[in-house]
Write a structure and sequence with these properties.
160 residues, alpha+beta, 60s Ribosomal Protein L30, Chain: A, 5-stranded mixed sheet, two-stranded antiparallel ribbon, 5 helices, 7 strands, 32% strand
Length: 160
């Protein structure tokens, strides 16, 4: 069996706004995220993990922040592009594990909706995606409420 593993990380600072996008889900919050696209750290970390598993670099290489096409882009569009790269190279997602690091907003109530939407974009079973959250116990930039981060690991397998 041909398997490959990739990891991803993304972070964005909080700024003005009334919501954050996490895993393709709009979550009400007293601040937004400062980003060129919609700032969805879950999807960005997942894209980086998938691209890493394919040895194709990172999300910035394929969707550069200086490119006007990606200004305010829905990150689910980016994920679908990465999923197409995966398929074109004869691979599919085995499973992925994503951890969101923040004090607020609460992520747990939204993980099922995130997994369902991301699975639809990737073309996999929602059970192949684990999305969870943790705090940093009030330490560091996430603990001070300055931003939000996400880590992802993905296992891809060659199509049979």
């Amino acid at each position: 069996m041909n398997i490959r593993i990739g990891q991803g990380f993304d972070v964005h600072a909080f700024g003005p706004g009334d919501h954050v996008m996490l895993g393709g889900v709009r979550i009400a919050h007293d601040r937004g995220l400062i980003a060129h696209s919609d700032g969805d750290v879950v999807i960005h970390a997942l894209c980086d993990a998938l691209l890493g598993a394919l040895a194709l670099g990172d999300i910035g290489r394929h969707f550069p922040p200086g490119d006007a096409r990606w200004k305010d882009a829905d990150s689910r569009v980016l994920l679908r592009e990465v999923a197409a790269m995966l398929d074109a190279r004869g691979h599919r997602l085995g499973n992925a594990d994503v951890t969101v690091i923040c004090e607020h907003p609460r992520v747990a109530p939204h993980v099922a909706a995130m997994a369902a939407g991301l699975a639809a974009d990737i073309g996999c079973d929602p059970g192949a995606l684990s999305i969870k959250a943790t705090t940093s116990e009030m330490l560091g930039f996430t603990g001070r409420g300055e931003g939000i981060a996400a880590l992802a690991v993905a296992l891809i397998v060659a199509n049979a």
